[in-house]
Amino acid sequence: MVASAPIVCSFATPSDLTDALADFVVKAQKDAIEKKGRFTIALSGGSLPKQLSALAKRSGVKWDKWQVFYADERAVPLDDPDSNHLLCTNEFYSKVPIPKENIHTLDPSLLNDLEELSDAYEKELIHEFAQKDSARFPVFDLILLGMGPDGHTASLFPGHELLSEEDRWVAYVEDSPKPPPKRITLTFPVINHAARVAFVAAGESKQDILKTVLDKPEEGLPASRVRPASPGQLYWFVDDAAVAKVEYPRTPFKL
Predict the structure, then answer these.
(1) How many structural domains is the chain composed of?
(2) Which residues belong to any copy of the Glucosamine/galactosamine-6-phosphate isomerase domain (predicted)?
(3) In a domain, 251, yes or no
(4) Residue 74: is its pLDDT beyond 90?
């Protein structure tokens, strides 16, 4: 499998970044709907849901065609302050008309059994992306990711055994180094089969880790291991503050 090289697009301000990200998401959506009549997207937590709020002002978004999944989710009730679903609801869904049945949450009745919880979420994916035996891995139209200060992405942490998972679509974590400890996450094979993956990283606090991830991928941090197989593409949406120490070349943003 040939992996695509990252395309790094840097913006002067965080608001320039969120505007470009909105244009990018609309374009990915348009391409997907033209091809197959729906748009499959996986979201992360952190600052990402707020950065998507610029989409509320965009025309041409066919919200009823969106099928929304989570790149990772914390094994907590859906109304828990740690829930990515609650965060996305407050910062994003509350501002746009995505039909509730198109948003695929974890099953809160299974929180006490992580194996069952991750299996049930994998079944949600299988239902959306045809039978598991007919496709080795689902192909998302777009997966949006953030990156932690340790270089983790989704709930894939440095040095964790899940970094080498090759079969499962959805896996669970019992020992996340940052709370809450119990989570489910998409695995690298799923992330790296997407048509488009985009990281969003802004602010000075990201400078050192971005330098390692982009300039020293051989160190193998989780965010460096996101390399979609061609023809999939990997984008980094960053602001100039975050990318100040990075030598990796920038690409002017264009749709």
Answers:
(1) 1
(2) 13-236
(3) no
(4) yes
- With residues binned 3-state (H G I as helix, E B as strand, rest as coil), the percentages for the chain, rounded to 5, are 35, 20, 45
pLDDT surpassing 70 at residue 133: no
Residue ranges making up the domain that contains 181: 7-235
* CA angle, 207 then 210 then 215, to 5°: 120
Upper half-sphere CA count for residue 85 (Cβ side, 13 Å): 21
pTM: 0.97
Query: Is 253 within the bounds of a domain?
Result: no
Cα diameter, the chain: 47
In a domain, 28, yes or no: yes
Q: Is 58 helix (H, G, I), strand (E, B) or coil?
A: coil
Phi, psi dihedral angles at 253 (to 5 degrees): -75, 125
The 3-state DSSP class for residue 145 equals strand
Q: Does the residue 254 lie in any domain?
A: no
Give the domain CATH number at 160: 3.40.50.1360
Rg of the chain's alpha carbons, rounded to an integer? Answer: 17
Cis check: omega of the bond before 231, within 30 degrees of 0? yes
Q: For 22-36, how does the pLDDT look when each residue is reduced to its tens digit (9 = 90+)?
A: 999 999 999 999 999
Query: Strands 66-70, 142-145: parallel, antiparallel or unpaired by DSSP?
Result: unpaired
